[in-house]
């Protein structure tokens, strides 16, 4: 009890110290979500739709795994556990509940609809209160469960680990216990960081203490063997806990939860190190390495790892994935795994293309790496993945989420349904569509530079910076920034890599400032006056990208950063809206033969000379018959991939170069 009250006192001090500043404390280079208002129809529609979808979920059933493990059989009887991904031998019970807390908090922070904010906050506060009750059941436990709350259906996994015995954990590795726990940690943390729920912070601290105590009787070699199992970004939450509290036990835990194999493997840029590995098992680890490195850089005394090593491993990983393993939409992997070298044909042949969770986590890693050196290459990747993958994974009619985005010509995608599918990509999908305002703008540590990263119609309101951005991008080849508050600082406007010529900036109608340094920032330092207008011109043009590790057999077409695809038909979309089945996230309908897919001939020059924009407001393109292998394909309309839903489609096209 003494320990319990000491932790409550610490929580109270923390609350008083950082209430209202938690986002800035954890992510000082980003602006708070409630400081950026989306005014763009594209992203705002996705955000608003997602808010309504979140409120349609049965929160009581999402919490059933936690009540069950706390011994409340009545609750479990009244609110049956969701079977999908939580039944039989595959027990990820509780993972979506953690994501759901995060999603409610993010949605509350991002929304500017007063009634919706009230409903989201009510739902979040209710969930935190009930989950706190489950956690409190273990307040007097001395068997390794003090501070615990989780949904894994066998508490002996944890009580035996606390005694130094890994048998129960080894027996249930397939349940990925620490992966599930990572989502619950994040749920409590985000409920505090984005929604200011103080009870969530108390629960988070207790859960952090549980984890520290849990591994106290495990030596490092044993813990490293445990970390060979998918565990999310468990070291990330401990780095964040250290930043919030200053408790050095958490920084030590972050290092102990660092998977040494994945650090050492990427220190020397081993070209084939990631080949064949389960992709999303790895990405969150490097998010955690980056967060831990940031803390160790400021607190190196007694460290188990060098901050530089952790950062270098994360940077090498990011480069390897984005340069060698990323497809045109910004995603990666086939059947959840990184491919072996030279196996790019599987992107074309297999149904199960890039997984949404991978890209969710790659964007987290990208924002953290950007914080260290503000390189435009990070934002170029972020933009590519945001428009072409993340935005495309929400059904614009139902709000359902996508797990695999098939790249196989003429295949299709499957969408989740509320209160049925409980996949990992449902959990991350719940969060994705509230985060669109997170990286439009950024700042340096001294708050002397305002970075304009993304070209999205929006307003930033901060004590130092007020900027209104007006654009129809990508349906417009430029953007306009209007200063809303006077001040002296540097405005850094991104020059994207895809804008190869004609980029320029003018201020208040004055002479254009030219710039030829693509993938960079144009930095303008001056005393800005309220009402100053900055016009940015960034011409877009057609380009092509080849399928990774598959030579030039298949290409994709882009206009600026936007992937142009074509819907081909709507027949045989088996399982389009997924049910409760274990594998319902896969599009298992009949494949179309690859040789039946539309193809190009004559090379890219003929192709681009044959392309015409028929509707600039929608980015619709037609292609004249001479560029088609089969002229009847000339009726197809190419358009942004994020607009194609409930249909078979083409992203990669076979090119007959002769």
What does this entry look like structurally?
This protein is of the alpha+beta class and 658 residues long. The chain has 4 domains: 220 residues, no CATH class; 146 residues, no CATH class; 139 residues, no CATH class; 96 residues, Maltose phosphorylase, domain 3. Helices cover 41% and strands 15% of the residues. The strands form 5 sheets. The protein has a 7-stranded antiparallel sheet. The protein starts with a helix and ends with a strand.
What topology emerges from the helices and strands here?
Layout: H1 2-18, H2 22-26, E1 36-38, H3 41-56, H4 59-69, H5 73-78, E2 86-87, E3 90-91, H6 95-110, H7 114-136, H8 156-162, H9 167-171, H10 177-193, H11 198-214, H12 220-226, H13 234-245, H14 248-256, H15 260-267, H16 279-298, H17 307-324, H18 345-349, H19 356-373, H20 376-390, H21 424-432, E4 441-443, E5 449-452, E6 458-461, E7 466-470, E8 478-483, E9 487-495, E10 504-507, E11 513-514, E12 520-528, E13 533-537, E14 542-546, E15 554-559, E16 562-569, E17 599-601, H22 604-609, E18 611-615, E19 620-623, E20 639-640, E21 648-650, E22 653-656
Parallel strand pairs: 5-9, 17-22
Antiparallel strand pairs: 1-6, 2-3, 4-5, 6-7, 7-8, 8-13, 9-12, 10-11, 10-13, 14-15, 15-16, 15-22, 16-20, 16-21, 18-19
Helix pairs in contact: 1-11, 3-6, 3-7, 4-7, 6-7, 6-10, 6-21, 10-11, 13-14, 13-16, 15-17, 16-17, 16-19, 17-19, 19-20
């Amino acid at each position: 009890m003494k320990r319990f009250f000491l932790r409550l006192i610490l929580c109270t001090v923390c609350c008083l110290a950082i209430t209202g500043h938690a986002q800035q404390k954890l992510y000082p280079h980003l602006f708070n979500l409630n400081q950026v208002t989306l005014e763009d129809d594209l992203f705002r529609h996705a955000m608003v739709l997602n808010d309504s979808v979140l409120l349609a979920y049965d929160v009581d059933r999402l919490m059933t795994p936690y009540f069950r493990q706390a011994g409340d059989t009545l609750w479990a009887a009244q609110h049956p556990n969701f079977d999908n991904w939580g039944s039989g031998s595959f027990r990820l019970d509780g993972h979506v509940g953690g994501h759901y807390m995060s999603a409610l908090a993010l949605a509350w922070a991002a929304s500017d609809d007063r009634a919706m904010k009230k409903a989201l906050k009510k739902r979040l506060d209710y969930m935190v209160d009930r989950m706190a009750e489950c956690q409190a059941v273990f307040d007097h436990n001395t068997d390794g469960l003090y501070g615990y709350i989780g949904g894994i259906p066998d508490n002996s996994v944890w009580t035996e680990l606390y005694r130094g015995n890994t048998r129960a954990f080894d027996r249930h590795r397939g349940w990925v216990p620490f992966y599930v726990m990572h989502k619950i940690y994040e749920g409590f943390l985000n409920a505090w960081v984005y929604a200011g729920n103080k009870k969530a912070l108390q629960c988070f601290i207790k859960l952090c203490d549980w984890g520290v105590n849990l591994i106290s009787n495990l030596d490092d070699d044993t813990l490293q063997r445990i970390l060979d199992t998918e565990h999310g970004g468990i070291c990330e939450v401990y780095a964040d806990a250290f930043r919030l509290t200053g408790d050095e036990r958490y920084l030590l835990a972050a290092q102990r939860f660092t998977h040494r194999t994945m650090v050492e493997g990427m220190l020397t840029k081993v070209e084939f190190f990631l080949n064949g590995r389960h992709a999303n098992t790895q990405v969150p680890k490097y998010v955690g390495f980056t967060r831990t490195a940031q803390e160790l850089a400021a607190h190196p005394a007694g460290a188990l790892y060098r901050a530089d090593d952790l950062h270098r491993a994360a940077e090498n990983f990011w480069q390897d994935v984005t340069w060698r393993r990323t497809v045109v939409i910004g995603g990666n992997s086939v059947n959840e795994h990184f491919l072996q070298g030279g196996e790019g044909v599987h992107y074309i042949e297999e149904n199960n293309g890039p997984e949404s969770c991978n890209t969710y986590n790659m964007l987290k890693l990208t924002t953290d790496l950007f914080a260290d050196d503000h390189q435009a290459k990070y934002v170029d990747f972020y933009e590519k993945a945001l428009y072409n993958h993340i935005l495309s994974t929400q059904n614009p009619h139902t709000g359902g989420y996508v797990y695999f985005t098939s790249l196989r010509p003429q295949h299709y995608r499957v969408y989740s349904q509320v209160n049925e599918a409980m996949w990992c990509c449902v959990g991350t999908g719940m969060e994705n569509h509230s985060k669109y305002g997170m990286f439009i703008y950024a700042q340096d540590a001294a708050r002397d530079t305002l970075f304009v990263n993304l070209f999205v119609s929006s307003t930033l309101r901060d004590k130092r910076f007020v900027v209104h951005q007006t654009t129809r991008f990508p349906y417009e080849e430029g953007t306009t920034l209007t200063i809303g508050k006077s001040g002296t600082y540097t405005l850094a406007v991104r020059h994207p890599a895809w804008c190869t010529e004609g980029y320029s900036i003018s201020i208040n109608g004055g002479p254009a400032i030219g710039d030829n340094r693509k993938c960079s920032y144009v930095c303008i330092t001056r005393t800005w006056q309220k009402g100053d207008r900055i016009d940015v011109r960034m011409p877009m043009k057609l380009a092509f990208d080849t399928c990774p590790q598959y030579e030039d057999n298949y290409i994709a077409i882009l206009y600026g950063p936007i992937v142009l695809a074509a819907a081909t038909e709507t027949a045989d979309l088996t399982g389009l809206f997924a049910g409760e089945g274990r594998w319902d996230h896969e599009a298992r309908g009949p494949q179309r033969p690859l040789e039946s897919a539309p193809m190009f001939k004559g090379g890219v020059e003929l192709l681009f000379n044959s392309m015409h924009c028929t509707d600039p407001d929608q980015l619709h393109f037609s292609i004249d018959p001479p560029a088609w292998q089969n002229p009847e394909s000339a009726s197809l309309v190419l358009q942004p991939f994020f607009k194609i839903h409930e249909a078979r489609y083409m992203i990669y096209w076979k090119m007959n170069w002769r």
